[in-house]
Amino acid sequence: MSEPIADQLQHKFMDQLNQLKEAGPLTKNDQGRKLASTMDIITAKETGPAYLFEHIETILDAGFFKGTSWEDEAVLNASLVGGTLKSGGLNTVYEIISELRLMAISEGKIHSEAMTPKDALRFLEEITVSNLDLLFPDASEEQRNVDDETRKKIQSLFGFLRNEIIDPDRINKRLASELEMICAQRPIITDRAHHIIRTIKEQMTTAQSDDIAPRLQLFIDAVYAPSKRAAELDVDEYEAWINDEKTGTSDLEAECTALSEPLRETGLSSPYHALLLRRIQDDRHLIAKLLRLNSYGLAEMETHHPLIRQIIDQACHPSTSRFVYGLAVMLERNLLARQPVESGLARLLEITIH
Question: What is the pTM of this model?
Answer without folding.
Answer: 0.78
